[in-house]
Amino acid sequence: MVEPDPESLRRQLLAWYRARKRDLPFRRTRDPYAILVAEVILQRTRVRAGLPYYERFLAAFPTIRDLAAAPEGAVLRAWEGLGFYGRARNLHRAAKAVVDRFGGGLPEDYESLRALPGIGEYTAGAVGSIAFGLRVPAVDGNAARVLSRVFRIEEDVSRGPVRKRLRDVAADLVPATGPGEWNQALMELGATVCVPRRPRCPECPVSGECLAFATGTQDQLPHAAAKGAVKVVPVAFAVVRQGDAVLLVHRQRGLHAGMYGLPGGDVADGESLPRAVRRHLAGLGLTALAVRRIAPVHHTFSHLRWDGAAFACRVRGRPQGAEWVPPDRLREIPLVPLHRRLLSVL
Q1: Number of domains in the chain
Q2: Contacts 24+ apart (CB under 8 A), 220-223
Q3: What are 115's strand-pairing partners?
Q4: What mean pLDDT do residues 168-187 have?
Q5: Is 242 domain-assigned?
Q6: Which domain holds residue 179?
């Protein structure tokens, strides 16, 4: 079987992209910082869901210097709801590094971009090619899916050697002229036509070059190791009020590091939810006088699921490691989104 022709692939895909690409705000800018923000947000977020956050984030921090100078809490508040908060913390760290090391301008070479906190191969490739015209690949999940089908790569794409092979294939395809446009075209095809389930092959501009389409295997590719079952974590949270203020804990580690949340969390084996709430409050120096179940808690993250309940509590004692937060401040601080929703309902 004849291998795909790179020149034909480029010509047909770029013509399709120029005619059919979505009009997105981050495609209307040449500002490297705005492109970086978009790429970090879209690492784990669909475009439609991410756009309001992209616009809100740039409104809050118009320049990389603004972001570098901002307190972490303000950055996390702007990011609140996007999830994967390590992205926000790393973007903040990267902004500080750019100001400290490069005078506030993103470096224009791949290796320096790659060395910034939280910037991996994909993000460095996307920013480098789109913002600076570097001839480097940018292989996200969409591009990997297209390449695995066009070149009929049947090995497990989650394995390191196969990921390297995909990147090598992608690097060979990047043209000397307009590398950023090419990388975006490849990703756009994967996002809109060469989708994970039931790819729309009749609409595909490169189906004539696609080895998977030629052999009828496009629905079976790419191969990847099956994901494990989502871990279910029992949780219990306390809603404790003092007048209009609510008791919150500033989390220092874990899933929501840097954010505020209701007291509570994990439930030990064999422990009832009310008893877990009392234990967590005792850890803050508080004695629970009454514990009343007020709302269920069911929330799925990428790798785990919270199942439990929230409890209204009356307490005695002075909190240690927690603080009373009044309504006006509640609007300003970064709060675990599920907890904000609970408080707004309650």
Answers
A1: 2
A2: 221/145, 221/148, 221/149, 221/152, 221/153, 221/154, 222/144, 222/145, 222/148, 222/149, 222/153, 222/157, 223/148, 223/154, 223/155, 223/156, 223/157
A3: none
A4: 98
A5: yes
A6: 6-220
pLDDT of res. 138 = 98
Answer yes or no: do 49 and 142 share one domain.
Answer: yes
51: left (phi over 0), alpha (psi -120 to 50) or beta: alpha
Residues 310, 280 share a domain: yes
Return the structure tokens found at 204. Answer: 């595909």
Cross-strand partners of 315? 288
- Residue 231, number of CB atoms within 10 A of its CB: 9
Q: Which pLDDT value is given to residue 345?
A: 82
pLDDT tens, residue by residue, 188-247: 999 999 999 999 999 999 999 999 999 999 999 999 887 788 899 999 999 999 999 999
Query: Which amino acids are annotated catalytic?
Result: 39
- Point out the domain boundary residue: 182, 197, 220: 220
Question: What pTM, to 2 d.p., does this model score?
Answer: 0.93
Angle of CA points 121, 123, 128, to nearest 5°: 95
The Cα-based distances of 233 to 64, 67, 230 in angstroms read 38, 35, 9
What is the separation, in whole angstroms, between the first and last Cα of the chain? 64
- Among 114, 147, 143, 161, smallest CA distance to 125 is for 114
